[in-house]
Each structure stands twice: as structure tokens, then as C-alpha cells.
Amino acid sequence: MPAALQIEGDWPDGVTLRRGWARATARPWNPLIDAGALRLVRGNSSFLAEATEWVARAAGGSVLSPALYPSAARIWERSGYSELLGLKVMEKAVAAPTPTPEWITTSTEPDLAELEEVDRSAFDRFWHMGRAGLSEAFRATPRSMLVEARNGSDLRGYAMLGNQAGVCFVQRIAVDPDYRNSGIGGLLMDRSEAWAAQVGAATMILNVRPDNEQARQLYRRKGFRDTGANLHVLSYQSDSLS
């Protein structure tokens, strides 16, 4: 008989699910959607399926995977997931820094409540990222940085960055709708590239929705190119909750 699934933590706070050496983490997708976000750290499809059912019951809805490359998505498909949406991967070689105004600042201690407020106004309810998701994104790599566009105490926009193995990942970029088309997005990207150069990254990588043409145009202007690679977010719906 397989070992029982062990749960560390309390829902809706982030939880860790374990069975033997297998491990996964989970949290609500965001505060506005009845769905769970599950991340497999290690384990087989049997463990993933069991962890998924637990998260589906806790979340009271569907369970969503992280953005996955096709090779990583196979174990999820074997566990009953199907593709929900796709994302395009873009990248650029890190170039010499472009100077930015003093009100484009950096921080290693993000105010998650403040970021969540901007994030909620910048994205629709499905793509909104709550505090748990923002914290997870900021801790996803060994080294992280937050780039902020401020007017005094007013946060106009931010970019969340991570660095690992010579690659700078643009984990999240958001601009308050009141300040869109003011050049803030480009300034955030310029300061992000300066940080990437500072930490010795050779490449910057981000992903973007195929239908978000405004964002894709900004990234192209800043030197990013489409790699041709796609990421996939997969979804699972428990039969018992259908």
C-alpha cells in the first residue's frame, strides 16, 4: 500500500504535499478564481494525480499547472490534465545598459500588498496574481530583484526579475492602467536589462500571451525576439466536482 499523502500547511495559505520522496506545492490560483495552482517539484504521475485531487477539493474548482514546455507537460497529461492556453517565449541578448530616471528604482523587499493592487488593476481577473503568487514568483530563482516606477509613494508599475545560470527571467511586468502609454513599460524594461547586466546574465527571457500584441510590440522594440517555443498551461477538473 502506498504511503498516505502528507499535507504541510493550511489552505488557502500555501501548502506542501508529500508522499515519500515525492513533493509538490500548491496555492489558490488567485483570490478571484475558484482554482488551485499546483507545482510538481518531484514525483511520478500517480503522485501528481493524487496531489491534484486534493488541491481540486481544497480549491473547490479546477487545478492549473505552471507554464510548461511540451516535454514537461507529458506527466501532467498522463495525470488527466488537458491544455488550457499557450504562451509565446521571447528572448534577447543582454546589451549595454540604457540610463533610466531616478524614479525607476530597485528593491529586494517587495511590498506584496502594494504589488497586488497594481497587478489587479493591470490584468483581467483570470491573469491577476495574488500575494501568494507574487511571493512564489519572487522566490522562484536564487537571486531576485524588483524594479519599480514610482511617483513619491505612488507605485505606477513594476517588473519582477529572477536570475539563474546566466539567464535573467522577467517573471512579471505590470503598469497601472492610469499610466499606460506613458513610456513606463519601456523604462521598466531598460532598468531590468541594466540589472541583468549587473548580475552577469547573458540572456533575458519572458513569456507573453499570443493575443497581447501591445506587450509583444513593446518587447520587440526592446530587442526581444520570438524563439518559436511555446509554453502550455494545463487544467484539470475533478469528476467529483463537475
Structure description:
With 242 residues, this protein is an alpha+beta fold. It has two domains: 6-85 and 231-241, Aminopeptidase; 95-201, Gcn5-related N-acetyltransferase (GNAT) (Aminopeptidase, 3-Layer(aba) Sandwich). Helix content is 28%, strand content 38%. The chain has helices spanning 45-59, 70-78, 112-122, 131-138, 184-198, 213-221; strands at residues 6-8, 15-19, 22-30, 33-42, 62-64, 82-93, 104-107, 143-151, 154-164, 167-175, 203-208, 225-236. A twelve-stranded mixed beta sheet has the order 1-2-3-4-5-12-6-11-10-9-8-7, with helices on both faces. β3 and β4 form a beta hairpin.
- Mean pLDDT comes to 95
Number of helices: 6
| Order of the strands making up the biggest sheet | 1-2-3-4-5-12-6-11-10-9-8-7
The CATH homologous superfamily of the largest domain:
Gcn5-related N-acetyltransferase (GNAT)
Content of β-strand: 35-45%
Second-tier CATH architecture of the largest domain? 3-Layer(aba) Sandwich
Please name the defining characteristics of this protein:
2 domains; Aminopeptidase; 242 residues; single chain
What's the gist of this structure?
The protein has 242 residues and is an alpha+beta fold. The chain has six helices and twelve strands. 35% of the residues are buried.
